[in-house]
């Protein structure tokens, strides 16, 4: 998406994300969610933390810490997302699957990498989640 297209979505994205606000302990932490999501949608050559943070005007380390260490209720947020999708698109004839994608990683320098279920290897492994 172009910069103009991203800018046009910011108000609507902020309104959509507000339903997930209760699952974050601090408003500042919650604000990084929108910046990160906008970066993922942006027309960036690379979608890693550094280019996203630089494009959003956020210190790179801060966005890394958001994904790795900042506190939010992941399970309740996932549950709310599933409810939101079901409410919007559910019907007796609908079938939907929400699945995180895990990619095997080596080392400990990438934020969010840990020993967890990894879909790519089909077992608990050192991986990053998407």
Descriptive report:
With 130 residues, this protein is mainly alpha-helical. Helices cover 48% and strands 12% of the residues. The chain contains 5 helices and 3 strands; from the N terminus they run αααααβββ. Strands 1-3-2 form a 3-stranded antiparallel beta sheet, with no helix packed on it. The radius of gyration is 16 Å and the shape is globular.
Low-confidence stretches: none
Q: Report the strand count.
A: 3
Shape: globular
Q: What is the multimeric organization of the chains shown?
A: single chain
Alpha-carbon Rg, integer: 16 Å
Strand content: 5-15%
Question: What's the average pLDDT?
Answer: 83
Provide the succession of SSEs: HHHHHEEE
Distance between the termini: 20 Å
């Amino acid at each position: 998406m172009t910069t103009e297209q991203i800018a046009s979505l910011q108000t609507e994205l902020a309104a959509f994300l507000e339903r997930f606000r209760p699952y974050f302990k601090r408003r500042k932490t919650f604000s990084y969610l929108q910046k990160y999501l906008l970066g993922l949608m942006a027309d960036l050559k690379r979608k890693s933390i550094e280019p996203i943070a630089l494009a959003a005007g956020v210190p790179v380390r801060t966005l890394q810490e958001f994904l790795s260490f900042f506190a939010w209720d992941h399970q309740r947020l996932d549950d709310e997302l599933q409810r939101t999708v079901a409410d919007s698109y559910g019907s007796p004839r609908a079938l939907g699957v929400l699945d995180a994608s895990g990619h095997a990683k080596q080392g400990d320098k990438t934020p969010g990498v840990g020993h967890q279920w990894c879909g790519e290897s089909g077992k608990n492994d050192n991986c990053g989640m998407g």
